[in-house]
Amino acid sequence: MLLLFPYISCFEIEIPETIFISIWPRDNENKFLAAETILLAFQNYILVLGTSVMIPTALVTLMGGTDGDKARVLQTLLFVGGIKTLLQTLFGTRLPAVVGGSVAYVVPVLYIINDSSLQQITDKHERFMHTMRAIQGALIVASSIEIILGYSQVWGLFSRFFSPLGMAPVVGLVGLGLFQRGFPALGNCVEIGLPMLLLIITLSQYLKHVKLPRDFPIFERFSVLICISVVWIYASILMASGAYNHKSSRTQFNCRTDKANIISTAPWFKFPYPLQWGPPTFAAGHCFAMMSAVLVSMVESTGAYKAASRLAIATPPPAYVLSRGIGWQGIGTLLDGLYGTCTGSTVSVENVGLLGLTRVGSRRVVQISAGFMILFSILGKFGAVFASIPFPIYAALYCVLFGLVGSVGLSFLQFTNMNSMRNLFITGLSLFLGISIPQFFHEYWTPPHHGLVRTNAGWFNALLNTIFSSPPTVGLIVAVFLDNTLEVEKSKKDRGMPWWVKFRTFRGDNRNEEFYTLPFNLNRFFPPT
């Protein structure tokens, strides 16, 4: 049975298909399993809302949009995210990973927002519509980078330069590089964020062996859902008691459960559709700027796929599977451009961390969570209720989940020789520069000066600022370059290549077929290499 094993892999044990033919299975055991799976899926859905709400909240107002526009963009983002997740888990890498919006696209999107041709539009609604169409056009063109590099297997060929030593800092920085969304964001409302952090640590670690109904580890499986519910109610009580009535606008925005006006402005029913904002517009500068975010999201997703495979007890995705996943991620970015989500696609790092926290790596759970994303994006009011959770609650979760993903990256070092000074040098330098260089670029990101690089070519500024503001991308550049140029032939064993090389090809390990084979016997038409 799925959730009775000490560690669960979506590939070793899957929920029987028949369980989901009917919502009410005939026997009680299947009924319990189905309810448990649905709750786990809902937990994934709740977790993905943090970043999904943060992106429209930060961008839509700058574009000239209203709270109603913000709610529509959020609905569209979740709707497309559900579709992308289903495509990725069915035909992409097939790992239990949620695909959502990416913060890496914020810099090029801000460059488009501040374009002088758009800023001179005086009517806010008209400026919002024209800006959205410009973003859509840039996403549509930039998605071709992922599609070409993925389906041509070029990204897979490039991944052959990766080793456990080179990927350890990259995967580590996928989690650790997001530290700004952890305690700094939690500190915006300490009275909510700190109890959340203490509660999630207590339930998921100290009480994880407590088994209440049917000898089931409820706190280990549903610690995130339980903690969010408890602290959300606590936050609502604080708000209702008038604790924030005379506080600053910033405190109210971070602590109140109704400040974002998402519930009041969200429609009861809205079905997102392609080109709902109008026909996309295309500008060369916008497209080049957006391509930098596509490259960054490819690096971040590659690291997230490596982490997800390790937490789901699967073999590292072979080059062919990795390319296939990047290709489908490009299709997802194309959908982002067609529907208008304000951002592109990447793997949700927090949901990858949830695989390790709950010890549940079920592909089926993630697919059902994609169904929740689609359902509640259509039923706007119901989805908006969950989207009103204060962000410091998510920030507390990020402290745990991002840290967990970071430690998974460092665990790749066990396959290397860390008594080698060469390996210590590469690991230390790539981790340090992967954190310090993006932080240096972030310090120069102020309203008057958008980034450290400031030339007359705005698209070039956005391109470099995007690349060097991404910790995993900087870590990849440093680690992979050094790992493939410093004493390469003498250090094959020290780099961990004897363990890694067998996973480069689909046929290199017998378990790959079980983990990554396409459904519906599609491998006959798309044979792996």
Automatic annotation (TrEMBL):
InterPro entries documented for this protein: NCS2
Membrane-topology annotation of the record: Multi-pass membrane protein
This protein's GO CC annotations: membrane
Record's subcellular location: Membrane
Origin superkingdom: Eukaryota
Chain ranges passing through the membrane: 38-61, 97-113, 134-155, 161-179, 186-207, 222-244, 365-387, 393-412, 424-442, 462-482
Pfam families tied to this protein: Xan_ur_permease (PF00860)
Keywords, alphabetical: Membrane, Transmembrane, Transmembrane helix
Gene Ontology MF terms in the entry: transmembrane transporter activity
PANTHER family the record matches: XANTHINE-URACIL / VITAMIN C PERMEASE FAMILY MEMBER (PTHR11119)
Family per record: Belongs to the nucleobase:cation symporter-2 (NCS2) (TC 2.A.40) family.
Protein name: Transporter
